[in-house]
Write a structure and sequence with these properties.
Structural class: alpha+beta
Shape: globular
CATH class: Alpha Beta
Helix content: 25-40%
Length: 209
């Protein structure tokens, strides 16, 4: 059964305004179908605008071609969960997380949970919208999802530690949020850049001692 908690997002058109949202842990494949339906047309519209503005395919959002149900369904197992942010019956962001402890490279003899995928609704892709002079509806979906991820790590006994591989073009988000960058991972099929967050950085990120 899905677990709901409350968090807040920053309204993109008014940086001083916080909007209450639901964080839902335990999304189903039916929820993923809803996300695909909600995001498909706006995402193609964003991609079309960026393409017309002269941006290359390498500069488009990494998630622009994703089908969430197809991508996530095969990875939804007893050791994974899908977490989403919902506001007024619309999905603002989603991620798939493996909750089984995995060895960290940066911290010897320490484990973390693994972030497999993360995506925001097209209306919340602030960096890419900024390239065509538009503002996002919510400006910090990625940061809030990462804070939720750190709390999930604490729940799983990993003390906030997280392991992930950044999709090409998304590395700056993780640098901004204080992830430790370990460079291209030779063991990853696509040699993506590996990031980790330490227990200390997780505490700072969550504002706890």
């Amino acid at each position: 059964m899905a677990v709901r908690t409350i968090d807040f997002l920053t309204y993109g058109f008014d940086p001083d305004r916080l909007v209450q949202v639901d964080v839902v842990d335990g999304l189903t494949v039916e929820d993923l179908s809803q996300i695909d339906a909600e995001w498909e047309t706006p995402m193609f519209a964003l991609v079309a605008e960026m393409t017309c503005a002269g941006f290359s395919s390498d500069e488009l959002p990494p998630s622009w071609g994703w089908c969430m149900r197809q991508l996530f369904e095969d990875e939804l197992t007893s050791i994974s969960t899908i977490i989403g942010i919902e506001h007024e019956n619309e999905w603002e962001g989603v991620m798939l997380v493996y909750t089984d402890p995995r060895p960290c490279c940066h911290q010897r003899d320490a484990n973390g949970i693994y972030l497999a995928y993360i995506a925001a609704a097209p209306r919340n892709l602030g960096y890419y919208l900024g390239l065509i002079d538009k503002k996002p509806t919510f400006d910090d979906v990625g940061e809030v999802l990462l804070s939720v991820l750190a709390r999930k790590s604490v729940e799983c006994g990993c003390h906030g530690r997280v392991i992930l591989h950044a999709a090409e073009g998304s590395e700056e988000l993780y640098r901004k949020c204080g992830r430790t960058e370990l460079g291209p991972d030779s063991l990853h099929p696509s040699k993506l850049t590996r990031f980790e967050i330490t227990e200390e950085r997780a505490k700072n990120f969550l504002g706890v001692k």
